[in-house]
Design brief:
By secondary structure, the chain is mostly helical. It has helices spanning 2-11, 13-23, 31-43, 49-73, 75-85, 90-111, 117-127, 132-156.
Length: 158
Amino acid sequence: MAYIDQLIGNYGYAAIFIVLALGLFSLPIPDEVMVLLVGYFTKIGLLHYSFSLLAVFSGSLIGTLVSYGLGKRVGRPFLDWFAKWFKLSNKWSKKAEHWIVKYGAPGIIVSYFIPGMRHVAGYFCGMSHMRLKTYALYVATSAFLWSLLFLTIGRIFE
């Protein structure tokens, strides 16, 4: 976490955007903890709240849209490679896939608040050929609510 603290200190909003975008489709980083830290930085005056909200929202949105695109283009083989690379069992992917099939687009909003689900929901939505317009609407709503919640919690609590 000290590394992320240093990145934000050196590169500001661009670091927030890039780390969240990469984190939501590839890097295993603690997104919630990072956004809480950014919220705290807004409280002590290191960052501006509105710009931070924009960076968190847009980074998380871009990351999930990239994962959707990967799911749509390369599908299951990429997901299997990803799971093998991170030494994950197939159990998590079956649960996530079942969740998306069962609840569809509205399930995206709920899944965004479940650690781990947010990271893979885009792949499964892309693999299931959910319409991009539908996915983008629900994921943008989710990303905004998630960003607002965690940034605000980080700002309120020390």
